[in-house]
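Format notes (please read before filing issues)

Several people have asked whether sequences and structure tokens are stored in separate files. They are not. Every record keeps both together, in the order shown below: the sequence lines, then the token lines. Line labels are part of the format and must not be stripped during preprocessing.
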Amino acid sequence: MKKSLVVAMCLAAFGAAQADDGLTANVALTTKYKYRGQDQSDSTKESVPAIQGGFDYTLGGFYLGNWNSSIGFAHGTEVDVYGGYRGTVGDLGYDVGLLQYYYPGSGVSNLNTTELYGALSWGMFSAKYSTTVSDKYFGFEEARGTGYLDLSANYGLMDKLTLNAHVGFTHFPSDAKDLGATNYTDYKLGATYDFGSGVTLGGHYVGANKKDVYGDINKGRVILTLSKVM
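Then the structure lines:
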């Protein structure tokens, strides 16, 4: 990935956030980018730093956002664009939306993926289900209808320190399985410390099962991430 592209996006988002209260921006540096438990960079290295960032615009319950990350394939850039609506009913939060994963660069359009999602949250717990509406799921053929269930909990252990736990389940439709796609489970466990002023530092152990199928991209890794929300 051209890291200059992500940096430019983050700086643009930062400027926008200063100009309009409806906009917020975020930027992060992580020692390894994993998504749904799988490495998004060189799986032979424990640490491959990635720069990440984006922005969100909200208007009432509606929101529109963009998030970007350096990666180790598809010319090195992941660009996500999403939008939806969120709100609350009593103590229950809900969120529905559409997310497009895009990998700029010639010859990599087969990795582009579109998902619909819905989420519920209550206290420290949240559950989110995403379903693929594009024909392909990150390169897997005949993958329309691939589902991903995200179950997470965030517990405030003490002032500024939060424990984080997550388990996710990827389930492919039968047509994709016939072509070699395999269901798997991913996990994340660790903690996040809030320094104030939007700055946090997270330390987590992240990975997935089915290493015999996917190889070292599913290997468990210790990942540190420094983030800033503006």
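For reference, the curators noted about this record: The first strand starts at residue 23 and ends at 30. DSSP finds three helices and 14 strands in the chain.
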